[in-house]
Design a protein that fits this description.
The protein is an alpha/beta fold. It has 2 domains: 207 residues, Class I glutamine amidotransferase (GATase) domain (Rossmann fold, 3-Layer(aba) Sandwich), CATH 3.40.50.880; 100 residues, no CATH class. The chain contains 13 helices and 11 strands. Strands 1-11-2-3-10-9-8 form a 7-stranded mixed sheet, sandwiched between helices. A two-stranded antiparallel ribbon has the order 4-7. α10 packs parallel to α13, α11 packs antiparallel against α12 and α12 packs antiparallel against α13. The longest helix is centred in the last third of the chain and has 22 residues.
């Protein structure tokens, strides 16, 4: 099987995908439209939270992206931002987070859908309901007396979820229906519940009316001056997985897998027995001399010297007549004259060859010596004729 040199480019292409710089990947992602919301701090598109992550860093908060197991939270102290999880936490993970908050840490829950909130709200014994009026008001003026509302003229909350007031709840933002943003004391720690996954998304940074959302959240996080951890484990990121596992679960891994599959199919197809039909030339290649030698051996064993001389002389005479423009009825005298005039051979020698050979055939009983002598003379005359006439018309060697 012949190898195409282009196959060598495939490993180089796969290596380039693995070694593609992160900034190049980010530039590439800007041209790819966002299909589904992804509230990760790694996401720089409208639904992402990379703007809030950078803002926390610029305001002096120590930030990090949490990808470890929740059981490792006991080794750190700070606030955990849990935003629109893709994978709902298990009961054991919820218990680990609650235990961590009870030890004096903060937990910020920004989630619009219910499957990310149900377990936490059940643990906090909170009751929620949906506003049923037809009003579409999403801009709310907070209470300026609240300490976390400093420099916050407006809050933009796109949610119809409201909470019922409880004993351990502090309502940070309310309307005429119920509590919109709630703070719950839990042991020595705090919970901040905001029923909107896009509360501080990247798309809000471009809207001046939404700047109050960022100021409010920064004020709340700075109250205790703690480290801020953006939960990326709930978005599918894992810190304890291998490099190959991480790559294979990414877009580059999917692309490489498809290319490798195509490469395997291509190699498999090239090694199949059935494919395009190809014409095979299996004809036996025989040498002309082998045929002549075999025929001569047959004539010799049969002592058919008359037949051999007849075949050779008649073939010579017919070719000579055709080349000289004579006919089969032309006499040997006239034929020898034409031969001498056209090819320049000796007329007497040519006439003697023609007469002697004709008489041998008429007499019969040709011996092997007479056959060889006639063949030698005819061969020499043909050689002289070929040099004079040219084109090789009658220059046929006699054997």
């Amino acid at each position: 099987m012949k190898w195409n040199p282009l196959f060598l480019l495939l490993p180089l292409f796969l290596l380039a995908l693995f070694l593609l710089p992160q900034d190049a990947q980010q530039q590439l992602n800007r041209f790819v439209p966002e299909i589904t919301p992804f509230a990760s701090s790694y996401n720089q598109k409208p639904s992402g939270y990379s703007a809030l992550y950078e803002l926390c860093q610029r305001t002096g908060l120590k930030t990090a992206q949490w990808q470890k197991s929740y059981r490792d939270l006991k080794t750190v102290h700070g606030a955990l931002l849990f935003v629109a999880p893709i994978h709902p936490p298990s009961d054991s993970e919820v218990a680990q987070i609650l235990e961590w908050v009870d030890q004096g840490n903060d937990f910020v829950l920004l989630d619009k859908v219910t499957f990310g909130r149900d377990k936490f709200l059940a643990a906090l014994k909170m009751q929620q309901f949906t506003k049923t009026d037809s009003s579409r008001v999403r801009m709310y003026r907070p209470d300026p007396a609240c300490s976390v509302m400093t420099h916050v003229p407006w809050l933009f909350v796109n949610s119809k979820v409201r909470f019922t007031q409880t004993a351990n709840m502090e309502s940070l933002l309310v309307d005429g229906v119920g509590t919109i943003i709630a703070q719950i004391k839990y042991g020595r720690g705090r919970f901040l519940i905001v029923p909107a996954s896009d509360f501080c998304a990247n798309k809000c940074i471009a809207e001046k009316s939404c700047w109050g959302n960022f100021q409010f959240l920064i004020n709340w996080l700075k109250q205790e001056k703690r480290d801020v951890f953006f939960d990326e484990r709930c978005h599918g990121y894992r810190a304890n997985q291998s490099f190959w596992s991480y790559v294979l679960h990414s877009q580059a891994g999917a692309i490489c897998g498809q290319l490798l599959l195509l490469f395997v199919i291509l190699l498999w197809s090239l090694n199949q027995r059935f494919g395009a039909t190809v014409r095979q030339d299996n004809r036996r290649k025989l040498s002309g001399m082998e045929f002549v030698n075999g025929l001569a051996s047959t004539y010799t064993n049969a002592k058919a010297y008359d037949l051999a001389l007849s075949v050779i002389f008649n073939s010579l005479k017919s070719k000579l007549c055709k080349a000289l423009g004579a006919t089969a009825e032309t006499s040997v005298e006239d034929l020898s004259g034409l031969w001498a005039a056209t090819a320049g051979v000796d007329r007497a020698e040519a006439l003697a060859y023609l007469q002697q050979t004709t008489s041998l055939l008429e007499r019969g009983g040709v011996s092997q010596e007479e056959l060889l002598k006639s063949v030698v003379v005819g061969d020499r005359l043909l050689a002289l004729s070929a040099q004079q006439i040219g084109g090789g018309t009658i220059s046929c060697r006699l054997v």
